[in-house]
Amino acid sequence: MLSVKSKSIHLMLAFAMVVSSFLFVTSAQKAHASLASGSKFLGNVIGSSVPSNFSTYWNQITPENATKWGSVEGTRNTMNWTQGDTAYNYAKTNGMPFKFHTLVWGSQEPSWISSLSAADQKAEVIEWIKAAGTHYSGAEYVDVVNEPLHAKPSFRNAIGGDGTTGWDWVIWSFEQARTAFPNSKLLINEYGILNDPTQAANYVTIINLLKSRGLIDGIGLQGHYFNLNDVSVSTMNSVLSTLTATGLPIYISELDLTGDDATQLARYKEKFPILWENPNIKGITLWGYTEGQTWTSDSYLVHSNGTERPALTWLKQYLSGSTTTPTAPAAPTGLTATAGNAQVSLSWTASSGATSYTVKRATTSGGAYTNVATNVTSTSYTNTGLTNGTTYYYVVSAANSTGTSANSTQVSATPAAGSTGGGTGTLVAQYKVTNSNATDNQIYATFNIKNTGTSAVNLSSLKLRYYFTKDSSAALNFYADYAQIGTSNVSGAFASTTGTNADTYLEISFNANAGSIAAGGQTGDIQIRVAKSDWSNFNESNDYSFDGTKTAFADWSKVTILQSGTVVWGSTP
User: Fold this and answer.
1) Are both 293 and 407 inside the same structural domain?
2) Which of 112, 230, 308, 437 is the most buried (most CB within 10 A)?
3) Catalytic residue from among 64, 109, 124, 254
C-alpha cells in the first residue's frame, strides 16, 4: 500500500502526464501542415462548409460571403450567423487567425436599408456593428470599410457623409468598430490599388485620416486577377513603397491569379514573391482555391478531384525553399480547329509547366509547317486572313525556359464564305465563365470582341447581348468589374425576350470614350456581373448563353453583337 506521500507524488505525476498529453494533442491539432510558417500567414476563404484539405494549405480564415451584412441580415432584425460561425469556430479550434469581412460596404448591403430614413439607417448600422462585435469578439482582424473608393454605401450620408474631411463616413465607421471590436486589428480594404499609383495616393489620403485619429491598424489590398494579372512588377513595388510610408502593416486580402496552367504558373512566379518577400506585408489571403468553387473560374489551384495545378505545386516548393530541376513541357493535347469565313479558330488543353505556345500551319498534311503565332499565352488562337476553300493543317507546341515540346497531333479545317463560326461580318464575340457555379446568386461572365476585318470599328456603334432566365421577378443589377477599355465606358441594361432557355437579355453598350477596335484588334477583357436586388440565386444551367465549360476565351455564337442595330455575330435564342 502506498504512503500518502507516495500517493501525492503519483497523483502529481499522473496529472503532469494528463496535462502533457492534453498539450500534445492541442499542439498537434494546431500544428496543421499549412504551406506557410513563421510570422506571416497564408490564408484562404471558407464558404458554406470547410473543405477537408483546408488546413493542408492554409493557416488563416476569411468568410467569403457569410459575414457580409446582406448575408447576415437579409431580413431586417433577423440575424443569420450560421455560415459565419462555421468559419469562425474552425479558426478557433485550429488556432488560425480569423478576419471578419466586412462591416460597411456599398455592395451586398441589405436591400431594405436604402428605404429607411437617415435616422433609422444610422441606428441600424450601429446595431449591426455592435452585434458583429459581440458575436465575433475574438476576431483577430476586421475589414471595417470595404472599397471606399469604388463602392460607397447607400446610407453613407446617414453616418456622416463626406463631411469636412471628405471621408467623414469612413471615420465614423472606424470609430464604431473600435468600440465594438476593442481587441481586433481594424483594417480598410480596397481593390485597384496595386496596379494604379494614382488610386494608391487617393487611398493613402483616407488611411492617413484614420491613422491620425488612432483608428486603423493595417491596410488591406485586394489582389484580384483583373488588377494583378498584367501589372508590372515595378508598378507593384512603387505602390507598396507608397503604402509602406504610412507606417502601417499591409495585408493582401483577396488574391487570385488566372489563366491556363502555364499562364497562371508564370503569373504566380512573377507576382507572388514580390508580395511575400516584402517585409511590410504581414499576411496574404487567397480568394478561393478549389475548382468550381472560386468566384472566377480559372483562378482555382486544386482540381475538383484533389489534384494540384502547377501554380500550387510551385507555391509549395517556393514556400518550403526547395527547388526542382525544370523540364520542358509535354506536347499540347486536345487541339481542335473550327472553320469560319476566311479564318480558323483553334483551342487546346494546357500543357503543365508551359509558359507559351507556338501555332504552326501548313497547306499539306504533315507539313512542312510555318509559324503563324509565337509566344501565345492562352490556349486558343484565331488565324485570320485565310483563303476560303483551302484546307489548312495545324499543330501547336508548348515551351518554357527549359525547352520546347514536340508538336501536338495535327488538325485541319477548311474556311468557307458563310461559315463564320456562328456569326456574319468581321466581328467575333468571345466568352468565358469567370465563375462556373451555375446556382449561386450572381451571373459572372467575361467577353472579348475581336475585329477580324480591315477597318476600325467604333465601339459606340456596337451592342453585345447575353441571354438568360431571371428565375424570379426581382429587379436586376449590372456591374462592370473590369474592362480593358475602362469600366466607365461600359454600361448594361436588361430587356425581356422570348426563346429557348431565355426570358431576358443583358445588353452591354459602349460610350464614345470607349474608342474603336482597330483592324485585327480586340477590346480585351470585359468582365461583368449580374445580381438580383434581393440577392437570391440564379439557375444558369438552363440559360441560353451560359456554358460552364468555357473557362478560356472561345468564339461563342450564343452571344450576339449588334452593329448599328443589325445582328452581325451570333444567333438569338
Assistant:
1) no
2) 437
3) 254
